[in-house]
Design the sequence.
């Protein structure tokens, strides 16, 4: 079998877990970062190149791990070069640019895999399996909290695609879509509010999604003080008020500025995600995360941001968002 050549764009915190996953699969890894990646070369023994052009020439599959506002630029360049693309969430800083990425991939005949890794965490996979073949639940409760990203970083600048909703809570937005389907109304609040487009630190937010099938999803997110343990939870309630499924995640103490849960490479959900994407690419079969999912999550995050700003619910049309995508009517897969 020909060795898979992986090109990573970006050398931030998330790069390490992606490298560990690809190394589990025996891939050849090259990295390009505008700020340099000497620490990744030192720690993981991978190859660094000094230009995007060199990275694309050395790669079969490109993985974009950079700040949100750069996703569109890098994805479009990789697609234009005929490369399949994995892109960290959110797919882009707004729905229009996310749809442009999906449509460009479809037109070029390359694969696009939005990296919504929570679909690969075992407790959420178990929730999906629990609901299979069952009547619709009444309420989903999803929560996520961690230490906030480093003060002063782009994560707090809404103009750069930052914010607790599009960066952290998009995981649970995607879970609500995966578990309960399309949404018709969004209401959200944030505390404290942003000032001139800059989020405070710490900050928390709440989102309520009304799904087309009547299911209600209640999402809670927190970027807390340094050292706040990483934790998540999911609870699913039946129409009679009984609990269908409940799973709190064990708390993981974080170092200051560390907002990722602790993982071991072999069984990391990041490795499982990477392995499924690689297999889907090789076989031509769908993966559990599609371009449609990536675009729809961005659209819902935008709707939540609009609700936060106005203090009012936002009516949402999945049909209108799907209409932005080319191909089979939803741009789901090639």
Sequence:
């Amino acid at each position: 079998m020909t060795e898979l050549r992986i090109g990573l764009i970006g050398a931030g915190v998330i790069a390490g877990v992606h490298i560990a996953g690809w190394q589990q699969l025996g891939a050849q890894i090259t990295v390009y970062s505008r700020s340099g990646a000497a620490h990744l070369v030192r720690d993981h023994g991978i190859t660094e190149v000094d230009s995007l052009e060199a990275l694309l020439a050395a790669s079969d599959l490109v993985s974009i791990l950079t700040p949100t506002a750069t996703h569109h630029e890098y994805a479009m360049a990789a697609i234009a070069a005929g490369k399949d693309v994995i892109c960290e969430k959110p797919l882009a800083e707004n729905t229009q640019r996310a749809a442009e990425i999906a449509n460009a991939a479809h037109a070029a005949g390359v694969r696009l895999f939005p990296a919504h890794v929570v679909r690969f965490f075992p407790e959420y996979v178990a929730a999906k399996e629990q609901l299979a073949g069952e009547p619709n639940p009444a309420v989903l409760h999803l929560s996520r909290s961690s230490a906030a990203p480093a003060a002063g970083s782009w994560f707090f600048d809404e103009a750069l695609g930052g914010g607790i909703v599009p960066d952290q809570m998009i995981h649970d937005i995607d879970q609500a879509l995966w578990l309960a389907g399309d949404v018709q109304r969004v209401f959200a609040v944030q505390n404290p509010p942003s000032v001139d487009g800059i989020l405070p630190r710490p900050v928390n937010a709440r989102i309520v999604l009304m799904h087309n099938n009547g299911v209600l999803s209640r999402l809670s997110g927190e970027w807390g003080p340094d050292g706040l343990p990483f934790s998540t939870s999911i609870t699913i309630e039946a129409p009679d008020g009984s609990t269908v499924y409940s799973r709190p995640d064990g708390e993981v103490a974080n170092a200051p500025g560390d907002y990722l849960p602790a993982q071991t490479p072999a069984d990391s959900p990041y490795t499982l995600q990477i392995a499924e994407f690689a297999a889907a690419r090789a076989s031509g079969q769908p993966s559990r995360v599609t371009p449609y999912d990536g675009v729809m999550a961005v659209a819902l995050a935008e709707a939540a941001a609009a609700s936060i700003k106005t203090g009012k619910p936002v009516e949402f049309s999945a049909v209108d968002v799907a209409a932005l995508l080319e191909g089979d009517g939803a741009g789901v897969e090639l």
Q: What stands out?
A: The CA atoms of residues 165 and 304 lie 7 Å apart.
